Amino acid sequence: GNGCASAGPALLFVKTSRAGEQGRRFYACSACRDRKDCSFFQWEDEKVSETRLAAREEYNRSRQPSFTHRQNVERLKNFVLLALSQRKFCQDCQQLLLPSEWQEHSGHQFQCDISTAQLKTPSQLLYPLENKKTNAQYLFADRSCQFLLDLIIALGFRRVLSVGTPRLHEMIQSKASQDEDFSVRSLLLDIDFRYSQFYTEDEFCHYNMFNHYFFGGEAARETCQQFLYQNTGERVIMVTDPPFGGLVEALASSFKKLMSMWRETEKEGDNNQEMPVFWIFPYFFESRILEFFPSFSMMDYQVDYDNHALYKHGKTGRRQSPVRIFTNITPRMVVLPTEEGYRFCTICQRYVSSGNQHCEICNSCTSKDGRRWKHCALCNKCVKPSWFHCDKCNCCALQDHSCERTDAGCFVCGKAGHKRSTCPQLSLA
Ligand code: SAH
Ligand code: ZN
Ligand code: ZN
Ligand code: ZN
Ligand code: ZN
């Protein structure tokens, strides 16, 4: 196999060396870019020995989950028949246990008396994965999740393709099970296979959004295609919140494939329509995202999380999240909550944060981070309030920046002059 068990087919990358020199191409695992998590690496032109292939297959087998999705669905059916006192969840293995399995897990930490309500909120039962580069799980704060769902409903959508948004999915699922009149449906696509213990094959597909890979093969693809089928009159939106370490290019390519699956299901006629999308991502990726999706625009809404490392504390003491919604829905339709300070700019025809002032010269509400930005006549654009124009660099920067330039572009913003660790975009200061 040309790939890793937990991620599917590998992606082709290019290692660039000195300037001008042609980069050497290699395959690496699309999801586990951290070598510590996955050893898969192979030069494009490399010959792999039989022994190494065998070793790789052995390693892949050892990382296969212990049950298939189908088996997990059966197990859940049996699990809910158990008395509360018999319902145990192994925290070490992150697995619901049937009584016959308790023995195998002796010495492990159990959570007991798993209620039906807990089975409906798996994102609270499972611990968030913490792999820093690729698979860190940042769960929506309840307020933001509720806001997203209310917005989706207000916009008239009745189906949500949840790509890497397990908490939104579970909010929809549990409302649907409690309230007959609640008519929104959701399909979760996620690489975290632990969720297969809680959802049927119609509710969850094991999916890698870096290479558009359905682990469940054609059947899973068909489930997704069926979900996107539009003839039912229920409008569908895709909501995605990928890991920020992810490559925008790989993500965009997968999302375009999901969007074309939607287009294929479309009734004849309006072929130039795009599947509505909310792509949730930090604001400093704006230009990268717009490169791939020119029809998208960035909303000012700050998406909040229960556990986010990128938070900074604002002046008000309220944590400031750099995470925004990118969407191809007409901005003025995306109504942001006035009780949180958002207001409508009639010139820009969109909702903006309270501190975002309309700049007469730029003719737009220019702040990206919610604070009031100032216009720099030399740069001919608005910049962060803490920045000053530097004559040496011929641009605005923090007062104490170092003026020396390096040639390699920054990983985060792509600009030259600094490395990712000192990227001005990453700091809200
Ligand atoms: N805020 C969201 C969670 C976002 S965290 C919520 O509360 O619902 C990123 C999510 O993407 C996680 O659920 C993670 O399992 C998933 N993910 C990470 N890498 C992925 C990949 N390569 N393919 C599909 N899903 C992935
Ligand atoms: Zn404006
Ligand atoms: Zn301006
Ligand atoms: Zn300078
Ligand atoms: Zn940068």
From TrEMBL:
InterPro entries in the record: Mlase_EEF1AKMT1/ZCCHC4, ZCCHC4, Znf_CCHC, Znf_CTCHY, Znf_GRF
GO CC annotations, alphabetized: cytoplasm; nucleolus
UniProt keyword Disulfide bond present: no
Start and end residues of each GRF-type domain: 4-47
Ranges for domain CTCHY-type: 340-401
The UniProt record lists the keyword Repressor: no
Keywords, comma-separated and alphabetical: Cytoplasm, Metal-binding, Methyltransferase, S-adenosyl-L-methionine, Transferase, Zinc, Zinc-finger
Domain named CCHC-type: residues: 410-425
MF terms (GO), sorted A to Z: nucleic acid binding; rRNA (adenine-N6-)-methyltransferase activity; zinc ion binding
Cellular compartment(s): Cytoplasm
The protein's name: ZCHC4 protein
Species whose genome carries this gene: Crypturellus undulatus
Gene: Zcchc4
